[in-house]
Amino acid sequence: MKITGASIIVKKLIEQNIEYIFGYPGGSVIPLFDELYNYTDRIKLIQPRHEQGGTHAADGYARSTGKPGVVVVTSGPGATNTVTGIATAFMDSVPLVVITGQVPVSLMGTDAFQEVDITAITLPVTKTNFLVNHINELAPSLDLAFHIATTGRPGPVLVDIPSDIQKAEIEERKIKRGNIENFQTKTRIDEKQLENAYEMIENSEKPLILSGGGVIISGATRLVERFAEKNNIPIITTLMGKGVYPKNEDLFFEGLGMHGTYYGNYAVQNSDLIIALGVRFSDRILGNVEKFAPRAKIIHIDIDRSEIEKNVATILGIEGDVKKIINILLNFPKVKKDFSRWIEELSEQKRKFPLKYEKRGQLKPQYIVELVNKYFSDNTIIVSDVGQNQMWTAQFYKFKEPRTFLTSGGLGTMGFGLPAAIGAKIGNPDKEVVLISGDGGFQMNIQELATIRRYDINLKMIVIDNAYLGMVKQWQELFYEKRYSATPLPDNPDFSSLAKVFGINSITIKDWEEAEKAVRKISEMNEPVLIHALVDRDEKVFPMVPAGASLNEIMLE
Amino acid sequence: MKETKKVVSILVFDKPNVLIKLIGFFEKRGYTVESINLIKTGEKEKVRYIFVLNTKEKSFEKHKNQLFRIVETLDVKFL
């Protein structure tokens, strides 16, 4: 029997247990959308109002569930609109499969209507991509796309499918499978290396676990906590690593880097052995790389060997899945060395220089984050946008579960928050999802309020409105003589009224008391709602390590 | 610093755009590509590229690992 290309695509999605796709139609994907129309009971289509929103939504779905997010868009502008979303997912290692329509094979290369060379455009921001120019290649390409997106270090893969390939027919028995053996990641772990690592910990005085996004992705959160508790080793996390939280809170020193805690950075700069798990040592945590962790040897464990020795010199680089590796390390006996003096040293720094803000005067954004922490349960998924709102959320919310903090860490994509929160709620209907956004980023994908209304997505949104692009303004204030070039947003819309136009309830808050009432209220509501929070316009994010400075040069205020 | 010549052999899964990725990889890191040879391996879907590169970069070895960020890379050898 013969089947069409469009039918192969849908069958492959079903084979991969895809429940939701995030799709926007267009000329080059009409055959595919027509086929999807037959399967609305198996694959639910979530239609955003913009392809970028759809891509971030698929990303939020993937980050929060661990399953691949699937995007289907048309050729040309449909495809280019996904690029920011793809790059966002690439930087944060999120599994996405993006299916783009393409003009018919015969028109390719003729500058046809809505033609763009999307595989060339997305080459540097995908793990790999495929241009399917023959029906025989369609099924194998899709097999490989899902395999590559979800294995090893996850990431986005794009499959570009011309519309005539979607309509072409092939004998079902002639359909080949993708040769995934070519893309197997290394699974053998070198136990000798782990013995070395163990010995180094045993011989250290001030060890420190630096836990990153890889720990969350590999599902090793609880194991890493156990490893730290068993051996009494302090932990800090990167922005992407939030969610690790040992029951013994005395071991936890939160974040490091540009807007980390004072004591987290102190820990890095004074440790003599850093055990780095699933981190990529981004410039935002390193500061000045020459002066980073001057006393420490670094053991780097990562599934992606290209990260080892990329940004920092290591004494031991171990390639492999962090979950498997920590599992083996947990079988070693408890380290005999007592690190309690080191932990006491860090705790003293924590007491001396805690995270703080002034709890008087105009409403402070940090207080709103603390209220969310107070009124929502630990398994609530918190989604931030990018900028000050993101850093305040990271600093003042206590993330205790993996996959509960969704944020654009690597690319820093403003406009990520709202659509990603939509995707997270779709993937987690039983969990609360709270978006904490700024006024700038919220307006970058604001059209997705219509998506919330259409699918009745029970999302709690908080727009922290300081009428500025606050993070850039903060840099201008500190380093550019208060020359606020292009950062004021005095003409913001009234976000409360705007929500109402989209059929979404809203509350405006201006002071501390209203804030508490409103956050408590939305925690009890069972429908989408937006809080428009008018906050102190001059509040800044501290601590702060200026770009390129050593972590020792941290500014506390 | 003096330029040195490096010869590197990269076994890849043969897909369109792999060569572009490899060239981009080296150019981003300050290498100039002097010549490229493609060698068929006889194995299906696998080919070997021999790059002759000019570089001022001292720590050439560290880029060996990073070539594996390109998922099609199967093996890297310095000649």
Structural key phrases:
heterodimer, A: 557 residues, alpha/beta, Rossmann fold, 3 domains, 6-stranded parallel β-sheet, 23 helices, 20 strands, 37% helix, globular, B: 79 residues, alpha+beta, Alpha-Beta Plaits, 4-stranded antiparallel β-sheet, 2 helices
- CATH architect. name of chain B: 2-Layer Sandwich
Radius of gyration of chain B: 12 Å
Distance between the termini of chain A: 71 Å
Oligomer: heterodimer
Describe this structure in words.
The complex is a heterodimer of chains A (557) and B (79). By secondary structure, chain A is of the alpha/beta class. Chain A has three domains: 2-183, Rossmann fold (3-Layer(aba) Sandwich); 191-352, TPP-binding domain (Rossmann fold, 3-Layer(aba) Sandwich); 365-534, Rossmann fold (3-Layer(aba) Sandwich). Chain A contains 23 helices and 20 strands. In chain A, the strands form four sheets. Chain A has a six-stranded parallel beta sheet, sandwiched between helices. A six-stranded parallel beta sheet of chain A has the order 11-10-9-12-13-14, sandwiched between helices. A six-stranded parallel beta sheet of chain A has the order 16-15-17-18-20-19, sandwiched between helices. In chain A, strand 6 (128-131), helix 7 (135-150) and strand 7 form a beta-alpha-beta unit. Chain B has 79 residues and is an alpha+beta fold. Chain B has one domain: ACT domain (Alpha-Beta Plaits, 2-Layer Sandwich), CATH 3.30.70. Chain B is built from two helices and four strands. Chain B has helices at 18-28, 60-66; strands spanning 4-13, 32-40, 46-55, 73-78. In chain B, strands 2-3-1-4 form a four-stranded antiparallel beta sheet, covered by helices on one side. In chain B, a hairpin with a 5-residue loop joins strand 2 and strand 3 (46-55). Chain A binds chain B through residues 119-120, 123-124, 127-131, 148, 152, 179, 182-183, 304-306, 308-310, and chain B through 13, 15-17, 20-21, 24, 45-46, 62, 65-69, 71-72, 74.
